[in-house]
Design brief:
The structure is a homodecamer. Chain A is α+β, with helices and mostly antiparallel strands and about 90 residues long. Helices cover about 30% and strands about 35% of the residues of chain A. The first copy, chain A, has 2 helices and 4 strands; from the N terminus they run E-H-E-E-H-E. The interface between C and E is small, with 7 and 15 residues. Strand 4 (about 75-85) of chain G pairs antiparallel with strand 2 of chain I, so a sheet runs across the interface.
């Protein structure tokens, strides 16, 4: 089941720099892991923003929430979730 | 080059029914044609809405605008275009 | 799988009165049918508005979209869908 | 009398970690207590967000306000309250 | 139990003039009746707008919804309802 | 002359606790004083929020501004002022 | 007492042309009359819009509402009223 | 003096088709004329929308308003005007 | 050339008190100076807010920007600028 | 390929002053460099705001994102990107 997820990241300027770097490295590792597992189907950068548009393919809302809420940068993200259904004109 | 495009369709209730059906059929045919041509890469229905989220892969803004503005339902759509760049954590 | 769905109804004042009544009767029949089938789990009126907040329990986004988009008043509704996950403090 | 209540939690990043944990534990205990008492009828997590949608069943606005404003995380919540009336098509 | 209710009226310009006058007269009669009954406690015009801010005193959300949704001008109103609790600094 | 005033209070979490308590006590004393003087005609708590809806009865915009801007919690309030005129259907 | 009033005019395209012209002529005559009477103190066009920003000087909210609600184009206006107090740094 | 002007065009679906075509042709002629005169310095289409972003170079707000308000499609446009000053880092 | 300028001031609560007082005194002196010079034509307090609505009369956008961006409180202001043209019904 | 980019800068008041000055100097140098390279085609100050409207001419979304996200002030900017297509009435 597909979800379109937009994540906007906003890290406070006074957050310790070394912890940010650690969080970003962990976030990247986790993103790669979830893409390889096939649940994070697409991951695009929004041009000009510290934000992404992603497509997730998971079995349930619970699984989606678990994935998103355990992302290392989750506390600094504003997230919008849009459930996607099959489009009658889609050919795939 | 990728664009995320959201289209919300709103057809006035007093628009002639037979013309709506014709427009919808033309829209569907055009959507299938553009998907087969590889420029309309993804087409998803937003659950609960007469709207879609799409990914287009075209060579320029001009090509995108030509494609979107000649869609049969274009006069009845509110469209939001988001340019997508490569994400540093994407694996594809 | 649960979804919170808010529906706001707006019927154009120049829509034929007899067709509105027919649509409303069909809508009511359909709402009762879906509640009895267990998929429309809760249906509440928002006090002071021609709108409702509902809880749907369906197997997929596709099923949700099919149910909502075939409601007789769907063309006159603005719909907001919120996917609901289990809350760690919920006891049910 | 029913109210739909949406709570979005936002804890400042420089708030002491041990106090957050304490507040969260107290919040959870209070949520369970109020659910068992029958006043917090439903509690759902919004997928992808540190937020919930809840249904409260209380005797008055005063009782609702007392319950919400004494939640341990209340100072960090943005809350939207929607009074719910009986829907003419509801079967329960 | 008190509710603050804001009503903004918007009547389509092509609505038959004589029916508007009739609706307005009925609305006025009903407003006076409900004020005399003590349920419509305050009724103020918002300066510069075809809108009002009102205070209702009713026993339940159901009663409020019944009162508002049967107002003659209800189909042309955008209504915002705010439940009011006792303020700890209020002296009345 | 009447004004509807909505005040939303937001106190930063790192503001000294003892100064907050002092400000709140002063605010309460001032609110009671102004109610007794007849200028703060109504004061209601918005259920579920650290906010109020109030009705002020003062001689001029200048008087209103002086009253509001000298409230002890004024620096932490977002305030919306709506001038109220007599409603043609009001009976009081 | 001063009020800043912004008026945005939106006339439906299918409104009879001769009536629009009549309304506009009446509106202009009324605007001139109220400026000469000293109550409509300033009247500026917002560059690029069918809208104005005005300053009214009247004795009460009631007087302001009477003036605005009897403007010939009032049914086609969205109006925002902002009460103005004396500024402590103003020299006039 | 420069202004950034965004124009969004929305033509009602029941507007006579031949008059739309006439207005569009007049609009195009006028746009070309103003560009040649040097006052409409830039004119870009917003990709995916019936809208443009333009740069005007005129002597005053009055001149800008006269130009915009006499555009043939002005009655169907939502216009946002942003005055532009010299940027301290600009090299032109 | 006239501009309507709205300025909303928001000073962080942890900004040094003595510097705030100094900035406010400088702001006041500058406001008086600019009013006397005839460029800051009107300055009104918005009732109930730490905000003002002002009318500036300057020769160009550049001059306006220089004036506003050198105000002592500029770093703490949200500013909205609206260019004003002559209104065809204005008598001054 | 052209993009309209609006950048609004907001620097926290407690950010070290000497680092701000350094960042601003680097930002200016970079802006001049990119203008000379022909990719930052226009750079205008929005009158009354710490913000700019710019036109970029780059080969791809990726190039645009790289340019914007490496600007020294990027962490303090809110950025809106609008892809621009050729306008059928443009003469250049």
């Amino acid at each position: 089941m597909l979800y379109c997820v937009r994540m906007d990241v906003q890290i406070p300027h006074d957050y310790p720099a070394e912890r940010i770097e650690m969080l970003k490295a962990e976030e990247k590792a986790r993103a790669i892991e979830l893409q390889r597992a096939g649940v994070w189907r697409h991951l695009w950068r929004i041009a000009g923003a510290y934000a992404n548009i992603s497509i997730f393919d998971v079995a349930s809302h619970d699984e989606l929430h678990t994935l998103l809420s355990t992302l290392p940068l989750f506390p600094f993200m504003a997230i919008v979730v849009t459930p996607l259904a099959r489009h009658p004109s889609a050919i795939d």
